[in-house]
Give the backbone structure.
Amino acid sequence: MNKTTVFKKSVLIFLLFIVSTVVYAHGERNQEPFLRMKTLHWYDATWSIKNEAVIQVNDEVILEGKVHFFSRWPQVINKPDVIFLANATPGPVFIREESYLNEVPMIQSTGVELGNVYEYKVKLKARIPGRHHVHPMINVESAGGLVGPGIWVTVEGNADDFVYSVETRTGQTIDNLGTYATGNVYKWHAIWGAIALFWIIWWIRRPLLIERYLMVKDGQWSKLITLTDIKLGASLVVFIIGLLIYANMITKEAHKYTIPLQGGKAEIDKKPNPNEGLVQVKNKKAEYYLPGRTVTIDAEITNNHDLPVHLGEFTSANLRFINHQSAAGLQGVDEGYPSELVADESLIIDDQKPIMPGETRRINIDATDAAWEVERLSSLLNDPDSSYGALLFFYDTNGKRIVSEVYGQILPTFLD
Amino acid sequence: MVIKIQKYCGGGIFVAFAMFFYTSTAIAHGGVTIDQDRCVFQAEGNSIHFTAYQPSFSKTKELCRTINSVSDTILVIDFVEEALRKLSIELVLKKQIDDGSFVEQVVLDKKVYSTGTAKIAMTDVEDGLYRLYTNVQTSKHKHDSKPSRQHGVGYFEFRIINSVAVESDKNFLEKNKWVFYLLFLGLIIYFISKWYRNKPTKT
């Protein structure tokens, strides 16, 4: 292989590496609206710090709240039989120290039942300085990450000061898990990388596709792999197996007690919902008025509770529309909640009178806000599944909250 | 020479494969979030999103810098930044005239848009270059003696084209040029396969 060939092949390989994409914040906005409206509904979300807070490297942030797994889960993605509770941040700028779903540690994946609500808690520790958007997130097998509401956090300090100290079950203290045994990591990556590089160079030093294809066409199979190739391949197999045995021996010598990587799923018991069925909602008609950024729902509401109820909040895809005539609804919005996800006085209900016990009434709900466009939810009309899903928060006269699902097809309209 | 071409074909195919598999996700508005959307412009440092709809022509399709019909048009302005919802905003739509200057077509007086969205309905639409100005009344300018329109710095420029008229002006060849592209592709495939079939095999 002459120098020109080596140079040209190097350029070609280099081309592959320079092809890269730019990463933006707000990736959640690129998810299809039906995924965001009919999968997870996050509510009662709180953070241990305020939106736009400034913290230092090594400071902790706790994300808590509830996540409702929508009963009309989209057919195009897998059911949440395998999920993993995580956090959505731009890269590993935080480490996740602890995570819980219904108080069960979420070190492993788990499975949940549709139509149920689970309480989540994620404890993070700041690692890399910068301004980061921090969300809770649940990864669903085949569907990817489904992201909850996020706050902006500015991390100050020096990344080199980050310390993640842990004590193992054998009593050994690891001063910093972030840098623990990195020498070993570099060494073994270098060894395997060198072997792989050697193997690639061994083959690409020869003419690649066309010439070998012509050999195959001419029936000259024996010329494709030479005797030297076979000898080298056999030697490498022996060498690699020997290296693995040696690596295993020295690891056992250094670490007498090891636990295999755990592949099982954690089991979570669902919590009973005493309010289930107390208020039933049926979608009669739903429209999206494009020029006005308004979702209009004509719903039939049946109150099976023994107290009058009224609508306090409409929430979907992390957007919250609060009924400003409902004191209980207004109290449900924490001071630190991201304001861009809470619409102003733009939830209009045509009939504000409480729905009496046993009564069934049709009401018209208008939820207007630029957020439908800003959060990229307007495109739901172009989805293969033009349907919506949302939660309605009703409150009885004692202030008790009753959460009901509403779902149905939605049509675009230009008529106000 | 033929052998050399064959040798480097391997590399060429390699790159072709690389480029083929390097595809980004196709998302509306250029696959970016609203912050980097090409339909977003700035006023007083705040982001504003512009959308145009032509229900009778393109139904629910979101149009932006180029609008391909002179049918009735609805312009929707979404105020991305929270801060804009508390400020008084005047919206002015202007059209370019023959001497290159812009004249007012529609003016929506100063108003606070608490839902973060505003709309302008355009009827009797003509083709041409338009600008939508958003004059934001900031607290900094409240006591300014100048007319408010002069301190609005944000505008969005878009063009309306009478594509139906443009299309009818085209001759038969221009209207059906895709057929010729397809024929050209077929010829290329034919000649490549003919060359490949007749090429001398290496012994």
